[in-house]
Amino acid sequence: MYVPHCKYDIFISYAHVDDLPFPGSSAGHARGWVTTFVGCLKTRLAQKLGRSDAYSLWMDHEMESWPYISQQLLSNIRDSASLVVVLSPGYVASPWCQRERNAFLALLEEHVARPVFLVERERVEDEFPAELMDRKIFRFWVQEREGKAPRILGVPCPDPADHEYYNQIDDLCQDIATNLKRLRGAGGAVTALAASSPSSLAPAMAPRGRVYLAQVTDDLDLQRNSVKRYLEQAGVEVLPATWYSQDPKIFRAHAEQDLERCDLFVQLISETAGKRPEDLPQGYPQFQLELALATDKPILQWRNPTLDCAAIEDKAHQAFLTATTVRSEGLEDFKGEILRRLVTPPVTHGLKKSVYVFVDMESADRPFAEQICDILDRYGAEYVLPVQSDNPTENRHDLEQNLVECDALIVIYGSATKTWVRGQLQEARKSVALRKTPLRALAVFEGPPEEKAPLDMKIQGMQVLDHRKGINEHQVRQFLDSLVVAEAGS
């Protein structure tokens, strides 16, 4: 045993039906899912603790043979330092598993607090045991196709190329090892450890920061796990540490508590809007964003750069995907941006004097232009949009005034025609003679739709920035950086 005064360090609770080998399995693959899983767990845990005999593990291969829990089994449960529950529809439906689980959880209601680790072998959804709702979950299934059943990792046997299966094994073993080491250091005084409280897993040293990594739709589980591992390896504490109850009131209470502690709200979103129950019509992704906005936390969102937002029929979800806080880039780049934000939060660029940006656009591109303006405002830049009245003379006067007075010019090339954009650039070129100081920056921001004719035009100092698949805030920041350089040289 590893933890003093405990007969077993780990007790495995599972449903017999989840350990049945698939018919026709070859001799080398005749073991059931749970037995194979426990074998992997034993190997990895031995590596983390130093020896294969460093700890003791109990797994009952003759379970459910009796209608009641024997005194011997009850004693084994009571004398175990931790519990690993293999959750599945079969586990939830099993009276035996429920009795076994309740026997262990009864200890938590007394004076003894012990860690409980949840392994969700198969999606449980609404059948999730309420008494386990606030525990950390290691999910061994992935939703790869919308509308189809999730794929269970390791079925019928683990594939060496299935990195997610082994990633989850590694994450689980890391948490188990951390808990066992703490219990061992406490001399087996399990009362000193909160009941599987993930906060007890926090490193002894202060974290580099705290990130609220929003819960995601099923299709993004793998990406969320990848971001979570990256941040934790970098010394960042990731919240929430447990899986929230899906009851909106309970969800809100837990989320607000975690958001209050975090430095940055991070969210991964996709074309899947997720479930929208009657008592939460906006859905959980939008709900979490609303809570973050209410707490005034910095927000950083990600979507796949290959996602065609214009093809999203749900206009509310389309707007959600194209918000100014959403970055459309590779996931690895996004991970790096999270750490950069923690080190240097997005504030104004510290310009010696205010910067006045003219964002020139056609009326059809106004929503896109307004999103750009929101980012400019957030970074401390002033901006102006063109007057668009029924009076051509008034519009012309406003254009000429803006071109002369602005420090920087952005021309939006979204739904506007090539001819219109070229005309605005020609006007900017003519205004040079009327300006008191040179224009510090000029850029054409290409917005959606993706297909558009090339401008076949380049004037001095002009940048062309691609935002056809959605606004790339990093490029907007680079544009502002060019103003800093221009100011320094003036």
UniProtKB/TrEMBL annotation:
Any coiled-coil regions, as ranges: none
SMART domains: TIR
One GO BP annotation of this record: signal transduction
Domain of life (superkingdom): Bacteria
SUPFAM superfamilies, alphabetized: Toll/Interleukin receptor TIR domain
Stored InterPro entries: TIR_dom (IPR000157), Toll_tir_struct_dom_sf (IPR035897)
Name of the protein in question: TIR protein
Upper classification of the organism: Bacteria, Pseudomonadati, Thermodesulfobacteriota, Desulfobulbia, Desulfobulbales
